[in-house]
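Box 3.1 A note on notation
Throughout this textbook, protein chains are presented in two layers. The first layer is the amino acid sequence; the second is a C-alpha cell string describing backbone geometry. Keep the layers aligned when reading.
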Amino acid sequence: MRSRPGWYLLALTALAAACSDATAPDPGQITELPRALTSSERSIISASNVFGLDLVARVVAADTRANVVLSPLSASMALGMTLNGANAATFDAMRDPLGFGGLTREEINTSYRGLIDLLTDLDPRVRFEIANAIWAREGFPFHQAFFDAVSAAFDARAESRDFDDPATVAAINAWVDEHTDGLIDEIVDSLDPSLVMLLVNAIYFDGAWTTQFDPADTRVRPFTRADGSTVDVDMMSLTDVEVRTGGGPNYGAIEIPYGGEAFSMVIVLPDPGTSASDVMATLDSGAWDALTAGLARRELDLIELPKFTLTYDAYLNDALQAMGMDAAFRPGADFTRMSPRGDELCISFVRQKTFIEVDERGTRAAAVTAVGIGVVSFSGFVVDRPFLFAIRERLSGTILFMGLVGDPTAEDPGPEPLDSDCG
C-alpha cells in the first residue's frame, strides 16, 4: 500500500455500561451491562464493527489527505434507515456489506432500536446522543409504512418539504447544527433537482477523561510526519497512571477511558518504520478483536498525546460500492418498499462530515451522515456552468442573438480603449 503522510487515530467506543443509578453523583467504574444483549444485538454490534473497520481501511487507502476521521456508527445508521426502503436484490446488496447477512429486516430494526437506547443511556458522566431525520420531496409519492418503520426503529423525524425552496436547505442544516451542538453546521449546500429524499444521522460525543491531563504539563513537542518531516504540537502528558495496554506484531496500543470507563479511546501506534495506513489495512475484525481482548491493565510512567482538532468531509460512494453495495447506487435499484416509484430510485450519494477535538479535559466529537436518494429517470436540464445561447426565428432559421455566458452576475466593464490605425 502507498505510504501516506500524516497519522490516523482510530477512536472507537468500547461497550460497557452502568449498573448503578444514573442520578447518583458518583457512579464509579462501570463494569457490566445493565442487561444482557440479545443475540440479534450481539450480531448487529459485531456486524457494525466489521463494516466500520472495512470502511475505514478502504477510505484510508484511497484518500491522500493527511488525516481521516470517520464514524462507522453514523454511516451504519444512515444506511440502516435506507435499508428499510430497499427490496429484493438491492436489500441483499446493502445488508451483506453492512454485515447483517442472515438477519431479517425486523431483527435489524429491533437491534438498532436497542443499541440506540443502550449507548445513549450508558454512562451518566458522558454525553452521547444519536439523532435521525428524513426529509422527503413534497409531491413525490412515498409509502407511509416506510416512514413508520424508520420512525419506530430509529426514532427518526420525517418531514415533507419543497426541495426547490432554499429554506429547506436552511432547515436541514439547522437540524444538523442543533444535533451536533454546533460542531458541524451544515451537510448540504444545495439540493439537486433529481433528489427526492435525504436520510440523515447525527451523533454527538462529549466525554471527560477518567484521569484528566493537567494543562500545566502540556509542552510544545515535535511530531514526526510519515515523510520524516516534523511539526510542533501541544503535547499533553500524564505520569504514573494505570491504563490498559497491548499491541500487535507491528504496533503498540493503549486505551484511555472516559467517565466511568464505559467509553474509551483506543490509540494504535505503529512501530518505527511501519506506516499507519499499512497497519489499518491489516486491522480487520479478527485483528481488532484480538487487539482489544489482549489489552491489560498496566502502570505507565508516562503517556504523551497531542492536542488536536480535526474536521473531515468525504463522499463514501466509492468505498461502499467497492464493499458490495454497487447495485443500490445504479439504475435498476429496487427501492419499492420506499416508494411506489421505487424502481426509478437509487442512492445518489453518501456524504459524511466529522469533527473531533481532543484536549486535556477530554474529547468532543460529532459526525453527520447523509444518504441522498435520487430519481434515475430525472429529465431536467440544469444550467449551472458556462453556456452558449442563441435567439433565433425558428421558421426561417435566422439567428438574432448569440453569445457565451461564463458568469451571469458579471457586469460589462466596457471595451478596452481603441488605438485606431485611421488616426
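The longest helix spans residues 39-62. The chain has nine helices and 13 strands.
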